[in-house]
Amino acid sequence: MGLVCVFVNQKGGVGKTTSAINIGAFMAEAGKKVLLVDFDAQANLSSGIGANPPKPGIYELLSEQATIEQVTRKTAVKNLEVIPTDHDLSGAAVELIDQKERHFFLKETLAPVKNKYDYIFIDCPPSLGQLTMNGLAAADSMLIPMQCEYFAMEGLTKLLETTGRVQKDLNPSLKISGIFFTMYDPRTRLANDVIKQVSAHYKGLVFNTIIPRNIRLSEAPSFEMPISLYDPQCPGARAYQALTQELLRRDNMGGKHGS
Asked: How far is CA 211 from CA 128, 195, 229, 231, in A?
């Protein structure tokens, strides 16, 4: 059975989309069959992986204007597919408000293909609104990218409180796969202090691999490529490859996902 994993952080600019694209690509290169789902109306994942044009996409799928086969695209990476989106998705949050089962639309939509993939990675918007709640309700696990900043620590506390409510009310089986640090600059004392504090407070949840600040990671989306294709030898690529391997080891040891 496939593992549905949501990338979530209500704070923007933490490398959430970059992480979903690059972990997905390295998973695919490791032989896993992976589906990326762009569930953020900013559509950065769609453009960053080269899913153009983005229609039909996840909005058309949710509104039953298209089938899941019609919206799923291949990418330049073997074993990596994507369901794109565009700005129309922002209307979905409004449309879902009055629906009785509004938190479970994405879960029901992905259910028919869950066993087709080893991993389904959902990239959610930087908020804790309806779309993110749908992502959390649909997921088996969540990955939390986090910048090495003081305000990121405050945001992490709020996010974990929300996760607790989701586990209680919507998705009792939701697990936290882990927290990982992005955009790390070893020259700053604050960055190192944040890593120490979070690692001490959330023992067992923090990944050992840290993603450094790397201009090549920022450049790759403009060429519609994951870093594994754009510059596989740069520090950012090596870090994401190591993080992917660490995630695979955790999943296998935890018995959540077979090889």
From this structure: 24, 12, 17, 15
Give the number of other Cβ atoms within 10 Å of residue 182's Cβ.
25
Residue 147 has phi, psi (to 5 degrees) of -80, 155
Tens digits of per-residue pLDDT, 196-247? 999 999 989 999 999 999 999 999 999 999 999 999 999 999 999 999 999 9
- Spans of all domains in the chain: 3-254
Instruction: State pTM to two decimals.
Output: 0.94
The rounded mean pLDDT for the chain is 92
Give yes or no for a contact between 28 and 135, defined as CB atoms under 8 angstroms apart. Answer: no
Strand order in the sheet with 3-7: 73-74, 80-83, 34-38, 119-123, 3-7, 141-147, 175-182
Q: Per-residue pLDDT for 20 more than 60?
A: yes
Cβ 16 vs Cβ 7: under 8 Å: yes
Q: Which two tokens stand for residue 143?
A: 């990955």
Report percent pLDDT > 90 for the chain. 77
Contacts of 56 (CB under 8 A, 6+ apart): 65, 66, 70, 71
Confirm or reject CATH 3.40.50.300 for domain 3-254, answering yes or no: yes
